[in-house]
Amino acid sequence: MARHYESDITKFINEYKRKHADTEQRQREGRALLWDKNLDPEQLEYYRSGRVNQRPYVYQTD
């Protein structure tokens, strides 16, 4: 019996995907808006060069 168990959430997601066939495509498009970007290596190096190391205990005053 445990092999064929599906949680309520899994059932809901499967039913939602069955009713909304374009869900995965819309997820990919949404991800591409913010995450799947080609980074400019020169600009990335510029950002990294400006990084300041964090102290071990950030709340300690000098």
- Distance linking N and C termini: 63 Å
- Low-pLDDT residue intervals, each spanning 5 or more residues: none
Largest sheet: none
Helix content: 40-55%
Helices and strands, in order, run as HHH
Provide mean pLDDT, rounded: 90
Strand content: under 5%
Structure summary, number of beta strands: 0
Q: How many DSSP H or I helices?
A: 3
Shape: elongated
Record keyword descriptors for this entry.
62 residues; 3 helices
Helix-strand blueprint:
Blueprint lengths: L7 H12 L3 H12 L6 H9 L13
Please, could you describe this protein's structure?
The protein is mainly alpha-helical and 62 residues long. Helices cover 53% and strands 0% of the residues. The chain contains three helices and no strands. The protein has helices at 8-19, 23-34, 41-49. The longest helix has 12 residues, at 8-19. The chain starts with 7 loop residues before the first helix and ends in a 13-residue tail after the last helix.
Summarize this structure briefly:
The protein is mainly alpha-helical and 62 residues long.
